[in-house]
């Protein structure tokens, strides 16, 4: 069978894999300079120009399960729908200034052990039920981790490392008996199943979840289980992530840049608020052109920077002034970890205390709508690289260091009290006619 071929070097010759791929100097002068010439040649293995020019640095390409198949295998129950919807409605109202509760995103830096993660979810559920009049709590369930250089990329991509599932994770037991290999196979299809199964378990428990979105494909597998999403400091400036946020069904928080720039987060909100047309994939896994309406429930997350924290009242005042200039809601969320804690997990308590004080101060209380806290069953962190997957302590982070559960409750109690104080102050002011 013959095939029409394009020889970009001219001269009527088709380049084979074994032949030179650069033209002789005599071929690139005058009329022959990069002159495309259509030729016919017999197709045979390894002779295509595409094989010579494309995927030169690609080691392997493997099939990825279509999102729709995973969604059919892991359907959303009626109870889960109620949880996810309530989580979204509450977050949306808070982001837009229509609900005076505090939006709290709290949980492990990353999920690497679903058994420990589910135990944490149960503890959080019990606390959230008692604090729901003051705090709208969503569990941080991050399955993908952006890396500054290299490292474990999260459960979906790097599930080869930890022992992440056991028989306790009903009703997904049969599907989650994964026994992740330690041979570097990066079984992403398996990771997607684990992630979706875990998120549905949380939803069935009545715990709405929050995730960070790192690309435009993985949301097709899990976004219907999520109540709030984040775009991280390394990706807030990315056009692709702004386009993604414009089409997500959840509120989205954009973090300030790692250099401290709040302007890029404000630009991201404005961009995501508009509709976009971009390339993505459908639920059937087919490449497609996606058109979005825009997302009016986006906000800034102040997370500190390489140069220091930015959670003080002066930082927040400066940020809300810039938001107002841009015609956006003057409301911010504060990340108690990362640059604001100077990468010292115990300092999250200091940040939370400062935020609580600002919530109680009439001059600063109107501009803080949420907080983020990195928390786990056990405080601190451990090194996956040095310990290996079989010697990891149960319930302790393998990425950023976290507060333990008891310390987390203290921080949440303080924030809950501050919200109550703010509400009481406003009611008193309203009764006196000063508002």
Automatic annotation (TrEMBL):
Gene Ontology terms describing biological process: amino acid biosynthetic process; aromatic amino acid family biosynthetic process
The reaction(s) this protein catalyses: D-erythrose 4-phosphate + phosphoenolpyruvate + H2O = 7-phospho-2-dehydro-3-deoxy-D-arabino-heptonate + phosphate
Occurrences of domain DAHP synthetase I/KDSA (ranges): 93-159, 178-411
Keyword DNA repair: no
GO terms of molecular function: 3-deoxy-7-phosphoheptulonate synthase activity
Keywords on record: Amino-acid biosynthesis, Aromatic amino acid biosynthesis, Transferase
One cellular-component annotation, GO: cytoplasm
Matches recorded under InterPro entries: Aldolase_TIM, DAHP1/KDSA, DAHP_synth_1
Domain of life according to the entry: Eukaryota
Pfam families: DAHP_synth_1
Stretches assigned to coiled coil: none
Sequence similarity: Belongs to the class-I DAHP synthase family.
Name this protein carries in UniProt: 3-deoxy-7-phosphoheptulonate synthase
């Amino acid at each position: 069978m013959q095939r029409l071929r394009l020889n970009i070097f001219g001269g009527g010759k088709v380049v084979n894999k074994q032949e030179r791929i650069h033209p002789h100097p005599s071929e690139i002068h005058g009329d022959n300079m990069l002159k495309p010439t259509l030729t016919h040649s017999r197709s045979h293995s390894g002779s295509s120009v595409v094989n010579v020019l494309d995927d030169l640095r690609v080691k392997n390409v493997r099939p990825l399960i279509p999102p729709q198949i995973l969604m059919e295998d892991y359907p959303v129950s009626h109870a889960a729908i109620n949880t996810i919807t309530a989580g979204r409605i509450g977050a949306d109202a808070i982001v837009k200034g229509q609900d005076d509760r505090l939006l709290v995103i709290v949980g492990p830096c990353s999920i690497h052990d679903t058994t420990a993660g589910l135990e944490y979810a149960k503890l959080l559920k019990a606390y959230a039920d008692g604090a729901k009049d003051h705090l709208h709590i969503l569990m941080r369930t991050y399955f993908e981790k952006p890396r500054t250089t290299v490292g474990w990329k999260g459960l979906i991509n790097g599930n080869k490392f930890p022992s992440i599932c056991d028989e306790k994770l009903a009703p997904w037991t049969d599907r989650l008996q994964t026994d992740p290999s330690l041979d570097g196979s990066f079984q992403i299809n398996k990771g997607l199943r684990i992630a979706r199964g875990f998120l549905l378990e949380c939803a069935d428990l009545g715990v709405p979840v929050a995730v960070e979105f790192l690309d435009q494909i993985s949301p097709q597998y899990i976004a219907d289980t999520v109540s709030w999403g984040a775009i991280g400091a390394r990706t807030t400036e990315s056009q692709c992530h702004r386009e993604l946020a414009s089409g997500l069904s959840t509120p989205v928080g954009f973090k300030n840049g790692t250099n401290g720039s709040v302007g890029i987060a404000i630009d991201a909100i404005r961009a995501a608020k508009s509709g976009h047309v971009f390339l993505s994939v459908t639920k059937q896994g087919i490449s497609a052109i996606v058109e979005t309406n825009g997302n009016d429930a986006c906000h800034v997350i102040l997370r500190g920077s390489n140069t220091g924290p930015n959670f003080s009242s002066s930082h927040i005042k400066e940020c809300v002034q810039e938001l107002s200039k841009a015609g956006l809601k003057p409301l911010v969320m504060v990340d108690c970890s990362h640059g604001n804690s100077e990468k010292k997990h115990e300092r999250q308590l200091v940040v939370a205390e400062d935020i609580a004080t600002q919530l109680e101060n009439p001059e600063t209380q109107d501009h803080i709508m949420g907080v983020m806290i990195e928390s786990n069953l056990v405080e601190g962190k451990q090194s996956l690289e040095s310990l290996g997957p079989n010697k990891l302590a149960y319930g302790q982070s393998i990425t950023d260091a976290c507060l333990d559960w008891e310390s987390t409750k203290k921080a949440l109690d303080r924030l809950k009290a501050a919200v109550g104080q703010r509400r009481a102050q406003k009611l008193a002011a309203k009764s006196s006619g000063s508002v």
